[in-house]
Every structure is written in structure tokens, then in C-alpha cells.
Here is the input.
Amino acid sequence: MEIINRRQRMTSVARKVRREQDKTIGLVPTMGALHEGHLSLVREARRMCDVVVVSIFVNPTQFAPGEDFERYPRDLTKDTTILADYNVDYIFAPTPEEIYPKGFATYVNVEGLADQLEGAARPGHFRGVATVLTVLFHIIRPDFAYFGQKDAQQTLIVKRLVRDLAFDTEIVVLPTVREDSGLALSSRNAYLNGEDRRAATILYRALARAEAAYLSGERSARKLAEGVRAEIEREPRARLEYVSVTDADTLERLDKLDDRAVLIAVAARIGQTRLIDNIVLNKQKGTGALKMP
Ligand code: PAF
Here is the structure.
């Protein structure tokens, strides 16, 4: 396993792999602080591709002012040790200057999809995500890139980015990995103290309750959303930011659920920590399909 810090070295290694060795490349883009959710992506990349690259880069442009960019957990040594056990070929861990050279002035906006939910709560977030992924995809030119369903809106935006700008990369989305308690794995869980960690399980419990209501025949988006809200509000340490019930592929708001796949997404603060989670109902009808058509 080689750790690469320079953009130029990464470009030339990836070019060689593709052209001279005719091998497929799988990219797992991360911001480090790796957990089992990331590792499920790495395992799938290892299964599908000849060469696996994991990028580790805490991307400054996707954090709004006042967010947790400075204190975001960083431990490259620990991440490297973990990845050594997963037969990863390259870690790409650039400095900010390698990704955003002096005078950097080109940003990528995915319109519409990026304006709601997380985009509305975190202005500029998806512009930063789309921009850094565009740079990474150009440097590495992966055949496949891997993302977790926990960031549901991000997966839709990345698929749209790849389609609209004709990247030759297939996006693979894998299920959210959860603790036994139901808590979705996230690097930000590191911020949770014991009490907050217990309280954070309310998010999945509320979503699971909505799923149970749906399975019992509830088709009103408003009633499902109200149920999620009521459940989360029972937890004194939680402050709900939003609950949304939308078409899972377009993020169009729904009144009545029909035979489309439906995304129920929540964002809440547990103590000081902002967490997101979601479930997809009626998955086989929509975005459950892991790849872009
Ligand atoms: O999901 C993340 O960790 C980040 O948004 C990503 C995709 C690595 C881009 O910085």
C-alpha cells in the first residue's frame, strides 16, 4: 500500500494502472476517521476492482463557516493502519493546496437537488462536495466510486454530477451500516458522549416506526412525518431540524405515497452534534437500484 500526497503522483499512478496494466480502478472517497461504514465500501471496491484507491481529505469547501471543519476528527496514522488490513492499493491523502491550488476559482453546482434538505441547512455544502469529487474523479479517473446510503442526498447529487458532466465513472451506493442500537455509523459519532450516544438512537427508532406505519398501510406523507417528529421530540437531548418525505430519486415532496421509492430523511442535533439519517421505503421501485441506469 502506497500513501500518495501529491496530485501529480496520483494522476500518473492512476494513468499507468489504466493504460499500461489495463486494470479497473475503484475509488472510495472519504474524509478519514474511518469506521465500518467506510470499510463496507472498501470491501466492495476490493471485490469489484483490480486496484483500490481510498482518498482521505477533509474537504474545507464543504464546511460552512461556523461548522466543525477545524475539529473534524483526523487520524491518518490510525486510518492507514486500518486500511493496511483491507488490501488497499493506494491511499490518496492530499493537502488542501494539492486539491485547491493557488488561484483556484472553478466550482461545480448541481442545481435543484442540492438546494433542499442538507443543502438548505448547510449552504454551499454540496457545491464543495461536487467540486472536490470532480477534482478527485479527474485525478484518479475511477471506473467505480463508492458511497454510503446514509448520505442519501449526496448519493443523488453525485449520480447527477456524473451523468450531467459525462464522467466515465459508475456510482455504487451501499446500505447504511448501523450499530446494534440502530445508530447509523458516522465519523461525527466520535463527538457523542455516553448520554448523547444513547439519545442518538432515537433517530433510527423514529424512522423504523415510520416504516412500520407504512407497512401497516399508512400512505399519508404528513402523518408519517408527524410520527417521526413526535418520536424524536420525546427525546429531551434531541432537537429536530427537519424530517422530509420525498421521492427517493428526485427529492420531490410527496403528499400521498404511491408505488415510487420514498426517502424519509431526518437531521437533528443530539446535544451539540448534528446527525442525519434516513430510510427508503418501497426500495425495489426506485433508488434501491444501486447504479445509475
Ligand atoms: O461523504 C463524505 O465523506 C464526503 O462528503 C466526500 C464524499 C468524501 C467528499 O468530501
